[in-house]
Amino acid sequence: MNSAGGRSEREAVDVVVVGAGFGGLAALRKFRDELGLSVRLLEAASGPGGVWYWNRYPGARCDVESLQYTFGFSDELSQEWCWTERFAPQAEILGYLNHVVERFDLAKDIQFNTRLTSAAFDEQKCRWSLETEPGDQYEARYLIMATGPLSTPYTPEFPGAGEFQGEIYHTGLWPDHPVEFKDKRVAIIGTGSSGVQVATAISDQVAHLYVMQRTAHHCVPAENRPLHPGEQEAVKNRYGELRAAWRATPGATAWRSLPTDEVVVTYDKSALEVSEGERRETFERAWTYGGTAIHRAYTDLLTSEQASLLANEFIREKIASIVKDPVTAELLTPRQYYGTKRLILEGGYYDMFNQPNVTLVDVRSDPIEQLTPTGVKTRDANYDVDVVVFATGYDALTGTLTRIDIRGRTGLVLRDVWRDGPTSYLGIMVAGFPNLFIVAGPQSPSVLANVIVANEYQVDWISDAVRHLESHGIETMEPSPEAQIAWAEHVAELGRNSIYTKGNSWYWGSNIDDKPKVFLPYINFPNYAAKCNEVASAGYQGFILALRAEDVSQGDNIP
Ligand code: FAD
Ligand code: NAP
What is the distance between the alpha carbons of residues 346 and 334, in angstroms, rounded to a whole number? Predict the structure, then answer.
């Protein structure tokens, strides 16, 4: 693998891909091996993996089933890789991605330890000019930003953080060495998916755990387990057919039992049209089956406030039946509509609060004021601890891109263009930024789908577009401002008609004070793919395609 060197000459390639997670690795392979273009992938980390490189915290694992959280581009890869659990742990997913790098000989085209700091479009040359840390420079015709939807950790700025004498970690920047929790006093700030996973994983070892909760999120059992003998093979025998079925669901994931397709929930009725008894039975079945089945128990849990409240009530009763202390149970009960925040899959989280060494601290009523040399100070109390874990999330979907100085035509700066919220067409391109393509960006399904499926779909769509440009002598592609305005309105409307905008979450920027409150992802993967396919079939409708100067002089028309 290449290590960053800080060369003085500018390396020219057809394509620069940024990010070596699922999206970037798929793009590198596609552009190099299928389109035959020269590609350089830049990655800030010292190895591949993206999220799975950075999130090495105890308990980290996927919450889309392992057999679905995989690439679909290679049958051989699908057949040869073996998962061990229903939901794979971080190390196994990282192992899978390292295997992909090795198997497809990707490392020779990856520059690790290299962070893209700026990208400027040179209008004369029609090339992107790129600067990196530690100093290597690149020039590319196409720039693919696969920098991740959840790759810029957010840490609230508490006064005194520098004075704390103990250890401080952020789940999204976890060190590559074991962190010892045994017999230590630990504060975890944040109770999203990361906080819930790490708390559950360490609670048995620590002397005392303070779970600092500002908002109770909805958790349901993952029901993780080793894969049954024969289960994996049965899926592999039908992978093609199953993948197609998964891609046809709103979140590009199955909620039917694998591998038999036994029906867990049918997703064909409103929660409001069935009797209480039937609803309870359905919710119970989904709860027992585990995973995200409950999400698809009824068609309107994510669109109707009334239906969403029924799921709330079911989960409230479950919490009350698990957590023995009624005050703690009450505090753990979510107050926002079911679905407004991302559903969390847990493995013993609620039960953990029955342990004497675990305390739930309500930092909504008693907010954290500062870190002190010995721990965390809220308005009314001091918590002396040895370790503070920030599980405080991410500047999601836009934060990574706006931290890079990206300049398009006439000096347009992406972070300024996005000051009041992101604009794009199909969530893939931005007007004024020719030949710059985004994978898993805002206004695309990414985080509301099985991200691997969404990423691969976008990489395929982008590569088809590039093939089209190459074969028709087209120099640049970018959206028309009109197409972009219509897309923004479409994405916003989907958001308005959903439960997601009825409560605070990172889905629309409300986890970060100065972030515009704009709904960020696209709801419904198959609808998204249909729209993107339609645009491509209509000759990239809504895009401005400009011919190369020599082709214009020969009188060619834009195809
Ligand atoms: P990433 O994996 O985030 O990769 C982006 C890469 O870009 C990173 O390696 C980063 O270092 C690099 N990068 C960023 N900026 C620069 C720069 N300027 N220069 C160079 N390199 C840069 N999704 C699911 O569908 N199912 C799950 O179960 C699931 N679990 C998750 C668990 C965690 C802990 C987190 C944080 C997210 C999870 N997600 C899950 C969402 C996850 O983001 C996607 O599944 C997927 O891993 C994203 O892949 P990616 O390649 O798009 O981005
Ligand atoms: P998150 O869902 O954004 O949760 C952040 C938590 O930090 C929230 O509980 C938030 O409280 C709290 N917080 C933030 N600032 C705070 C402050 N100043 N004081 C007190 N609390 C504060 O982040 P995450 O848990 O890292 O998850 C992000 C996303 O990554 C997930 O939604 C999911 O998509 C993905 N993920 C998936 C898995 C998985 O199971 N596969 C695991 C980890 C992450 P509020 O709710 O009040 O804002």
Answer: 15
146 CB within 6 A, ligand 1: yes
Q: Are 151 and 50 in contact (CB under 8 A)?
A: yes
| Cα separation, 404 vs 415, whole angstroms | 8
User: How far apart are alpha carbons 418 and 409 in whole angstroms?
Assistant: 15
Verify whether ligand 1 is closer than 6 Å to residue 64 (CB atom): yes
Q: Are 493 and 444 in contact (CB under 8 A)?
A: no
Q: How much is the pTM?
A: 0.96
Ligand 1 atom closest to Cα of 400?
A: 15
115 alpha carbon, distance to own chain's centre: 20
What percentage of the chain carries pLDDT values higher than 90? 92
Q: Give the Å distance between the CA of 372 and the centre of ligand 1.
A: 32
Closest Cα to atom 24 of ligand 2: 393
Could you give the CA distance from residue 189 to residue 239 in angstroms, rounded to a whole number?
A: 40
pLDDT band at 411 (very low <50, low <70, confident <90, very high): confident
* Cα distance between residue 401 and residue 424, in whole Å: 13
* Strand ranges, E, within 123-268: 127-133, 137-145, 167-170, 185-189, 208-213, 219-221
Its sign, for the CA torsion 4, 10, 12, 17, is positive
Summarised one tens digit per residue, pLDDT across range 229-267 is: 899 999 999 999 999 999 999 999 886 666 666 778 888
The answer, yes or no, to whether any atom of ligand 1 lies below 6 A from the CB of 459, is no
Q: Please name which of 487, 437, 441 lies closest in space to residue 464, comparing C-alpha atoms.
A: 437
Residue 349: C-alpha distances to residues 176, 225, 326 (Å): 25, 16, 16
Instruction: Say what the alpha-carbon torsion angle 100, 103, 107, 110 is, to the nearest 10 degrees.
Output: -50
pLDDT band of 7, cuts 50, 70, 90: low
Nearest to 425 by CA among 402, 399, 443, 406: 443
pLDDT reported for residue 117: 98
* C-alpha 421 – ligand 1 centre gap (Å): 21
Q: Which ligand is nearest to the CA of 364?
A: 2
Nearest to 347 by CA among 221, 207, 167: 221
